[in-house]
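If I may wish for something, please sit down with the protein I am sending here and say whether tokens and residues agree:
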Amino acid sequence: MSALIAKAGITLSRSIDDYPEGIIIPIDKPYRWTSADVIRKVKWAACRHFEKKNLKVGHAGTLDPLATGVLLVCIGKATKLAEDLQKHEKQYLAGVCFGATTPSYDREKEVDKEFALDGVSEESIRQVLPSFLGEQEQVAPLFSAKSVDGVRAYELARKAYKQAARTGEDFDHSASELLSRQMINIPAIELVSFTPDFQAPAYESERNIHVNDLSGYRLANADVLVTCSKGTYIRALARDLGEALGSGAFLSSLRRTRNGGFKVKDALSVDQTINILSHE
């Protein structure tokens, strides 16, 4: 890969022509920012820095709004590398919350069902994790960009969610059965920590991404380190872990710690990136 890899303290020239293969910036995406939020911020600064109105800026692999960690931002000719970069193996530190489910399998939607925690323990989690190793089929979350007969799955999910809110009925997950199964690979998965009486942090609504309030629910939480192939939905893995233990589960947190050879410890903050692109 001959594109310039931006690091902290780097100085960029004012001409994008000095980077014929483009620039890749590993950014630690902030919590409750969409990947598009990051791109808009970086593109505005890059266009000003390089004095180009139509400079190409994109990313290699979307992160959900409630996830943080490595987001590879590609500038200029490096946008042509995005597809290949997305194919790289990834690593995540996932907080999996047991004892309830949400329609989105994370904290962006409210709890729709509660479950017993009788079969959930540190020992039971350690016993079941090896069954998720290797190649396997996975059904994506209904709140995803997968297509069902030409319609984005999240459009069907939003209709079902509004219907449930209007009628007071449970969210209808049945449309997920229409999603095709996808082959994924999980070469490594391990339990990092387990909290039997989990108290999830509360968040104020300073941004437009909702985070549900989990106070009052009886929950347990496991932090799981997952190495996986392209196309793996960690939200779906959380769902499947809950089902494997006879309970329900969803993501309480998600951090992408590695994308290929790019590690989160080497990633730049949004502010560091803007500073690099504002340097005279």
The chain has a mean pLDDT of 90. The chain is about 20% helix and 30% strand.
